[in-house]
């Protein structure tokens, strides 16, 4: 019996398959960078220096530590978490799609907020300390990103950061980072994404409910690409004329949008929203779930145009905001686009946060000013320098947000273009 002929996928199927696959490519690219470029190694903690802005979309208000955990059916890996009180912290565990598996902290684990966490492969039964909090991983690899709030005592936060330790037994079998094509945030991958697609997906169990359908779509496109150079060229053309434009259009406003801001309330657990997952992995990889942090991305001024570093903008918060919206803290950070790194400026000021001594207006409101030079109306602490002649993006983070934000009833004020 002859096999069914391989047919050309529809343009819509190519676009859907590409958007699905792109999220996995982004995380795999980060894995390759962390392991092969930075060379930290598996089951080793990288204690990021306070104030470090080396990685994408950094939050400069916490002491970070990160690690790639690798387990197998015979071996578990443990993380020791110190006792932390009086400041925000969480141990965020993610899969290789950027989906959040768990957050360990005093809110989610009142009976085990610190001490030993044991990571094991789901379905396996390695020997584990009976007093450990066990986290089952859907695949053999996971990413840990722990945050400890700096508050006004960064030295104490760093001391706590250094008390996190990881322990791995000998003999864990670890696959090298998967092969992915070279690409950047300005030069996205073309048909080469599908040449590695099926092998890449085979390394990555996916919690997305509709994962099987999307995975089959990726395989179908990959099979067609392999039939001939003409087929590959046809798929490449669809990627560059339809899939990439659709993705980039999405980055300019996704999820819930208001006042020039966007927010994805599905961040960290995306359901079947392949576009939101790809966008978040692109611009804010390792985003947490909204119960821990809500991320409002500001990209449009009141004039409807993308934010321009040569212009002056005012964000005027109502009395007591954003403080009244969080149980932990908030921060507003400015990033370059499209690479989402902080922008150098003479003040070395990249964000404004809960610890800032902001000047209030006569009516009780608080204005944050965005401009290349400090506006005459702005108190020094209220000014965030912008990159003249370049675009930029904002990220307002609310850590442990209160009900109005969690329910979507509150949104950041408009980013008012003043001049």
TrEMBL record:
Segments forming domain DUF1214: 292-401
Name the record gives this protein: DUF1254 domain-containing protein
Taxonomic source organism: Cellulomonas xylanilytica
Annotated ranges, domain DUF1254: 50-166
Gene3D superfamilies on file: Domain of unknown function DUF1214, C-terminal domain, Domain of unknown function DUF1254
Family annotation (Pfam families): DUF1214 (PF06742), DUF1254 (PF06863)
Alphabetical list of InterPro entries matching this protein: DUF1214, DUF1214_C_sf, DUF1254, DUF1254_sf
């Amino acid at each position: 019996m002859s096999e069914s002929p391989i047919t050309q996928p529809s343009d819509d199927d190519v676009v859907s398959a590409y958007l699905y696959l792109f999220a996995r490519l982004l995380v795999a690219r980060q894995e390759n960078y962390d392991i092969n470029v930075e060379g930290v190694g598996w089951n080793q903690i990288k204690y990021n220096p306070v104030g470090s802005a080396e990685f994408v979309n950094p939050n400069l208000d916490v002491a970070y530590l990160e690690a790639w955990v690798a387990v197998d059916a015979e071996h578990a890996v443990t993380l020791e978490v110190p006792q932390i009180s009086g400041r925000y912290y969480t141990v965020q565990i993610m899969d290789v799609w950027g989906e959040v598996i768990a957050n360990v902290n005093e809110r989610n684990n009142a009976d085990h907020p610190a001490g030993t966490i044991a990571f094991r492969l789901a379905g396996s039964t390695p020997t584990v300390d009976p007093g450990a909090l066990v986290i089952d991983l859907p695949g053999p690899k996971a990413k840990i990103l722990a945050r400890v709030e700096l508050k006004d005592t960064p030295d104490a936060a760093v001391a706590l950061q250094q008390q996190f330790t990881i322990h791995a037994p000998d003999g864990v079998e670890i696959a090298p980072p998967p092969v992915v094509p070279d690409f950047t945030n300005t030069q996205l991958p073309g048909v080469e994404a599908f040449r590695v697609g099926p092998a890449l997906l085979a390394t990555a169990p996916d919690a997305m409910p509709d994962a099987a359908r999307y995975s089959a779509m990726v395989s179908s496109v990959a099979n067609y690409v392999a039939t001939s150079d003409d087929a590959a060229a046809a798929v490449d053309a669809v990627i560059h004329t339809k899939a990439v434009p659709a993705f980039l259009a999405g980055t300019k406003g996704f999820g819930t949008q208001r006042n020039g801001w966007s927010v994805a309330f599905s961040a960290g657990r995306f359901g079947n929203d392949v576009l939101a997952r790809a966008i978040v992995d692109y611009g804010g990889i390792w985003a947490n779930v909204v119960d821990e942090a809500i991320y409002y991305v500001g990209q449009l001024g009141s004039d409807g145009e993308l934010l321009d570093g040569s212009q002056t903008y005012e964000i005027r918060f109502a009395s007591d905001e954003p403080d009244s919206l969080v149980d932990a803290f908030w921060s507003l950070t400015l990033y370059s686009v499209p690479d989402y790194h902080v922008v150098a400026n003479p003040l070395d000021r990249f964000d404004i946060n809960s610890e800032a001594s902001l000047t209030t207006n006569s009516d009780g409101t608080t204005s944050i000013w965005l401009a290349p030079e400090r506006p005459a109306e702005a108190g020094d602490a209220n000014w965030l320098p912008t990159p003249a002649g370049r675009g930029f993006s904002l990220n307002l983070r609310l850590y442990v947000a209160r009900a109005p934000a969690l329910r979507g009833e509150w949104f950041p004020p408009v980013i008012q273009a003043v001049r």
